[in-house]
Amino acid sequence: MHALETIIDGRPGHCVDPMDRGLHYGDGLFETLRVVQGRIPFLPWHAERLQEGCRRLGLEMPAEFEKEAPLVAAHRPDAVLKFVLTSGSGERGYARNGSTPHRYWHVFPAPTRIDADSGMRIRWCRHRLSHQPALARIKHLNRLDQVLARSEWSDPEIEEGILCDQDGHPVEGVQSNLFWMRNGVLHTPALEVCGVAGILRRAVLGWARQEGIEIVSRRFDRNDLLEAEEVFMTNSVRGIRPVVALEAHTWPVGPASRRFVRRLAAVLEGNEGLPA
To answer: What would the DSSP string read from start to end of 131-167?
Structure first.
Protein backbone atom coordinates (compact mmCIF):
# COMPACT_ATOMS: atom_id res chain seq x y z
CA MET A 1 0.00 0.00 0.00
CA HIS A 2 1.45 3.36 -1.05
CA ALA A 3 1.28 6.46 1.11
CA LEU A 4 -1.20 9.12 0.01
CA GLU A 5 1.05 11.83 1.39
CA THR A 6 4.44 12.14 3.08
CA ILE A 7 5.62 15.02 5.28
CA ILE A 8 9.30 15.24 6.22
CA ASP A 9 10.40 17.54 9.04
CA GLY A 10 7.21 19.55 8.69
CA ARG A 11 7.19 19.90 4.90
CA PRO A 12 5.69 17.80 2.08
CA GLY A 13 8.34 15.63 0.47
CA HIS A 14 9.32 12.18 -0.74
CA CYS A 15 13.13 12.17 -0.54
CA VAL A 16 14.96 10.49 2.32
CA ASP A 17 18.51 11.56 3.08
CA PRO A 18 20.66 8.58 2.03
CA MET A 19 22.73 9.02 5.20
CA ASP A 20 19.70 8.84 7.52
CA ARG A 21 20.66 6.59 10.45
CA GLY A 22 17.18 5.09 10.44
CA LEU A 23 17.95 3.70 7.00
CA HIS A 24 21.46 2.51 7.90
CA TYR A 25 20.99 1.20 11.44
CA GLY A 26 17.28 1.19 12.28
CA ASP A 27 18.17 3.95 14.74
CA GLY A 28 14.73 5.30 15.55
CA LEU A 29 11.12 4.69 16.48
CA PHE A 30 7.69 4.65 14.88
CA GLU A 31 4.02 4.92 15.79
CA THR A 32 1.01 3.87 13.73
CA LEU A 33 -2.09 5.93 14.52
CA ARG A 34 -5.71 5.38 13.53
CA VAL A 35 -7.66 8.45 12.38
CA VAL A 36 -11.44 8.32 12.85
CA GLN A 37 -13.59 11.26 11.70
CA GLY A 38 -10.52 13.46 11.66
CA ARG A 39 -9.60 12.58 15.26
CA ILE A 40 -6.84 10.41 16.73
CA PRO A 41 -8.56 8.89 19.79
CA PHE A 42 -5.43 7.26 21.22
CA LEU A 43 -3.01 10.12 20.52
CA PRO A 44 -2.05 10.67 24.20
CA TRP A 45 -1.04 7.02 24.57
CA HIS A 46 0.97 7.08 21.34
CA ALA A 47 2.80 10.13 22.69
CA GLU A 48 3.54 8.36 25.98
CA ARG A 49 4.93 5.27 24.23
CA LEU A 50 7.00 7.41 21.88
CA GLN A 51 8.40 9.32 24.83
CA GLU A 52 9.38 6.07 26.54
CA GLY A 53 11.03 4.88 23.34
CA CYS A 54 12.99 8.13 23.13
CA ARG A 55 14.13 7.71 26.71
CA ARG A 56 15.32 4.17 26.00
CA LEU A 57 17.18 5.12 22.81
CA GLY A 58 18.59 8.37 24.15
CA LEU A 59 16.64 10.56 21.72
CA GLU A 60 14.89 13.83 22.47
CA MET A 61 11.11 13.56 22.42
CA PRO A 62 9.95 15.70 19.48
CA ALA A 63 7.66 18.46 20.75
CA GLU A 64 6.21 18.59 17.24
CA PHE A 65 4.62 15.14 17.50
CA GLU A 66 1.43 16.10 19.34
CA LYS A 67 1.22 19.41 17.43
CA GLU A 68 1.63 17.92 13.96
CA ALA A 69 -0.55 14.82 14.43
CA PRO A 70 -3.93 16.66 14.56
CA LEU A 71 -2.90 18.85 11.62
CA VAL A 72 -2.00 15.84 9.49
CA ALA A 73 -5.25 14.11 10.51
CA ALA A 74 -7.48 17.13 9.93
CA HIS A 75 -10.07 16.82 7.14
CA ARG A 76 -9.36 13.08 6.82
CA PRO A 77 -12.49 11.24 7.93
CA ASP A 78 -10.72 7.89 8.11
CA ALA A 79 -7.02 7.15 7.62
CA VAL A 80 -3.89 5.61 9.07
CA LEU A 81 -0.87 7.73 9.98
CA LYS A 82 2.61 6.36 10.41
CA PHE A 83 5.08 8.54 12.27
CA VAL A 84 8.77 7.71 12.00
CA LEU A 85 11.44 9.36 14.12
CA THR A 86 15.08 8.71 13.28
CA SER A 87 18.18 9.92 15.06
CA GLY A 88 19.04 11.91 11.94
CA SER A 89 21.79 11.87 9.34
CA GLY A 90 25.50 11.68 9.90
CA GLU A 91 28.79 10.21 8.87
CA ARG A 92 29.37 6.49 8.50
CA GLY A 93 29.71 4.72 11.86
CA TYR A 94 27.57 3.88 14.86
CA ALA A 95 28.31 7.05 16.88
CA ARG A 96 25.58 9.66 16.44
CA ASN A 97 27.95 12.63 16.67
CA GLY A 98 25.23 15.19 17.33
CA SER A 99 22.98 14.37 14.37
CA THR A 100 19.62 16.18 14.25
CA PRO A 101 16.58 13.84 14.34
CA HIS A 102 14.27 13.56 11.32
CA ARG A 103 10.47 13.30 11.50
CA TYR A 104 8.43 11.52 8.84
CA TRP A 105 4.64 11.42 8.58
CA HIS A 106 3.07 8.99 6.11
CA VAL A 107 -0.67 9.04 5.38
CA PHE A 108 -2.33 5.77 4.27
CA PRO A 109 -5.92 4.86 3.43
CA ALA A 110 -7.96 3.38 6.25
CA PRO A 111 -8.24 -0.42 6.26
CA THR A 112 -11.34 -2.12 4.95
CA ARG A 113 -13.89 -2.51 7.72
CA ILE A 114 -14.19 -6.08 8.99
CA ASP A 115 -17.17 -7.65 10.73
CA ALA A 116 -16.30 -7.91 14.43
CA ASP A 117 -17.55 -11.51 14.45
CA SER A 118 -15.33 -12.44 11.52
CA GLY A 119 -12.74 -14.61 13.25
CA MET A 120 -9.13 -15.03 12.19
CA ARG A 121 -7.28 -18.15 11.22
CA ILE A 122 -3.71 -18.00 12.48
CA ARG A 123 -0.60 -20.20 12.71
CA TRP A 124 2.52 -20.76 14.77
CA CYS A 125 5.65 -19.09 13.42
CA ARG A 126 8.90 -21.04 13.27
CA HIS A 127 10.96 -17.88 13.76
CA ARG A 128 11.45 -16.87 17.38
CA LEU A 129 11.68 -13.39 18.84
CA SER A 130 15.06 -12.14 19.97
CA HIS A 131 15.48 -11.48 23.69
CA GLN A 132 16.45 -7.85 24.35
CA PRO A 133 14.95 -6.25 27.48
CA ALA A 134 16.36 -2.84 26.54
CA LEU A 135 14.16 -2.81 23.44
CA ALA A 136 11.14 -4.73 24.76
CA ARG A 137 7.74 -2.98 24.67
CA ILE A 138 8.81 -0.05 22.43
CA LYS A 139 8.31 0.34 18.66
CA HIS A 140 11.88 0.64 17.40
CA LEU A 141 12.63 0.56 13.69
CA ASN A 142 14.31 -2.84 13.58
CA ARG A 143 11.47 -5.18 12.58
CA LEU A 144 13.52 -8.04 11.12
CA ASP A 145 11.97 -10.56 13.51
CA GLN A 146 8.56 -9.64 12.12
CA VAL A 147 9.76 -9.58 8.50
CA LEU A 148 11.25 -13.07 8.79
CA ALA A 149 8.18 -14.44 10.56
CA ARG A 150 5.75 -12.98 8.02
CA SER A 151 7.76 -14.49 5.15
CA GLU A 152 6.84 -17.99 6.39
CA TRP A 153 3.41 -18.09 4.74
CA SER A 154 1.58 -16.78 1.68
CA ASP A 155 -1.85 -18.34 2.24
CA PRO A 156 -4.34 -15.41 2.23
CA GLU A 157 -6.63 -17.37 4.54
CA ILE A 158 -4.03 -17.11 7.32
CA GLU A 159 -4.19 -13.60 8.77
CA GLU A 160 -1.63 -13.78 11.57
CA GLY A 161 1.16 -15.82 13.08
CA ILE A 162 2.08 -16.27 16.73
CA LEU A 163 5.68 -15.55 17.64
CA CYS A 164 7.32 -17.29 20.59
CA ASP A 165 10.40 -16.18 22.47
CA GLN A 166 13.72 -18.03 22.41
CA ASP A 167 12.43 -20.46 25.05
CA GLY A 168 9.27 -21.30 23.14
CA HIS A 169 6.81 -19.20 25.17
CA PRO A 170 4.07 -17.47 23.11
CA VAL A 171 4.53 -13.69 23.13
CA GLU A 172 2.49 -11.94 20.44
CA GLY A 173 1.40 -11.93 16.82
CA VAL A 174 3.55 -10.65 13.98
CA GLN A 175 1.61 -7.39 14.15
CA SER A 176 -0.73 -7.76 17.09
CA ASN A 177 -0.96 -8.56 20.79
CA LEU A 178 -2.41 -11.81 22.09
CA PHE A 179 -5.17 -12.41 24.68
CA TRP A 180 -7.26 -15.34 25.82
CA MET A 181 -9.93 -16.11 28.38
CA ARG A 182 -10.12 -19.14 30.65
CA ASN A 183 -12.37 -19.58 33.68
CA GLY A 184 -13.29 -15.90 33.59
CA VAL A 185 -9.63 -14.79 33.77
CA LEU A 186 -7.97 -12.65 31.06
CA HIS A 187 -4.52 -13.87 30.05
CA THR A 188 -1.85 -12.05 28.04
CA PRO A 189 1.88 -12.78 27.75
CA ALA A 190 4.35 -10.63 29.69
CA LEU A 191 6.67 -8.44 27.64
CA GLU A 192 9.78 -8.13 29.82
CA VAL A 193 12.30 -9.49 27.30
CA CYS A 194 10.61 -9.02 23.91
CA GLY A 195 7.39 -7.94 22.23
CA VAL A 196 5.58 -4.64 21.71
CA ALA A 197 3.29 -3.00 24.24
CA GLY A 198 0.44 -2.25 21.84
CA ILE A 199 -1.97 0.63 22.27
CA LEU A 200 -5.03 -1.64 22.22
CA ARG A 201 -3.30 -4.05 24.59
CA ARG A 202 -3.22 -1.22 27.09
CA ALA A 203 -6.88 -0.43 26.37
CA VAL A 204 -8.07 -4.02 26.86
CA LEU A 205 -6.18 -4.28 30.16
CA GLY A 206 -7.75 -0.99 31.27
CA TRP A 207 -11.27 -2.11 30.36
CA ALA A 208 -10.72 -5.43 32.11
CA ARG A 209 -9.69 -3.64 35.31
CA GLN A 210 -12.74 -1.37 35.07
CA GLU A 211 -15.00 -4.42 34.77
CA GLY A 212 -13.33 -6.29 37.62
CA ILE A 213 -11.91 -9.03 35.40
CA GLU A 214 -8.90 -10.82 36.85
CA ILE A 215 -5.76 -10.43 34.71
CA VAL A 216 -2.80 -12.79 34.55
CA SER A 217 0.28 -11.64 32.63
CA ARG A 218 3.36 -13.86 32.73
CA ARG A 219 5.30 -16.30 30.55
CA PHE A 220 2.98 -19.04 29.29
CA ASP A 221 3.45 -22.36 27.55
CA ARG A 222 1.75 -23.23 24.29
CA ASN A 223 -0.65 -25.54 26.10
CA ASP A 224 -1.87 -22.62 28.22
CA LEU A 225 -3.09 -20.96 25.05
CA LEU A 226 -4.56 -24.14 23.61
CA GLU A 227 -6.60 -24.64 26.79
CA ALA A 228 -8.28 -21.23 26.36
CA GLU A 229 -12.04 -20.83 26.02
CA GLU A 230 -11.70 -17.92 23.60
CA VAL A 231 -8.78 -16.13 21.97
CA PHE A 232 -8.49 -12.68 20.42
CA MET A 233 -5.77 -10.37 19.11
CA THR A 234 -5.44 -6.59 19.07
CA ASN A 235 -3.90 -4.12 16.64
CA SER A 236 -4.36 -0.33 16.71
CA VAL A 237 -5.29 -0.26 13.02
CA ARG A 238 -7.22 -3.51 12.60
CA GLY A 239 -8.89 -3.37 16.00
CA ILE A 240 -9.89 -6.38 18.11
CA ARG A 241 -10.21 -9.63 16.21
CA PRO A 242 -11.35 -12.99 17.62
CA VAL A 243 -9.30 -16.05 16.69
CA VAL A 244 -11.34 -19.02 15.50
CA ALA A 245 -8.51 -21.34 14.43
CA LEU A 246 -4.86 -21.85 15.30
CA GLU A 247 -3.84 -24.47 12.78
CA ALA A 248 -5.97 -27.52 13.78
CA HIS A 249 -7.21 -26.03 17.05
CA THR A 250 -10.50 -24.08 16.96
CA TRP A 251 -12.46 -21.73 19.23
CA PRO A 252 -15.83 -19.98 19.08
CA VAL A 253 -16.12 -16.21 18.97
CA GLY A 254 -16.56 -15.49 22.67
CA PRO A 255 -18.30 -12.88 24.83
CA ALA A 256 -15.12 -11.15 26.02
CA SER A 257 -13.93 -10.21 22.54
CA ARG A 258 -17.43 -8.99 21.63
CA ARG A 259 -17.55 -6.87 24.81
CA PHE A 260 -14.15 -5.31 24.16
CA VAL A 261 -15.09 -4.64 20.52
CA ARG A 262 -18.05 -2.61 21.80
CA ARG A 263 -15.82 -0.69 24.20
CA LEU A 264 -13.40 0.10 21.38
CA ALA A 265 -16.23 1.29 19.13
CA ALA A 266 -17.39 3.66 21.87
CA VAL A 267 -13.91 5.20 22.12
CA LEU A 268 -13.50 5.52 18.36
CA GLU A 269 -16.91 7.18 18.05
CA GLY A 270 -16.08 9.65 20.81
CA ASN A 271 -18.70 8.30 23.23
CA GLU A 272 -16.21 7.03 25.79
CA GLY A 273 -12.82 8.22 27.03
CA LEU A 274 -9.63 6.21 27.38
CA PRO A 275 -9.58 3.82 30.34
CA ALA A 276 -7.39 4.67 33.31
So the answer is: P-TTTTBS-BS--HHHHHHHTT---TT--EEEEE-TT
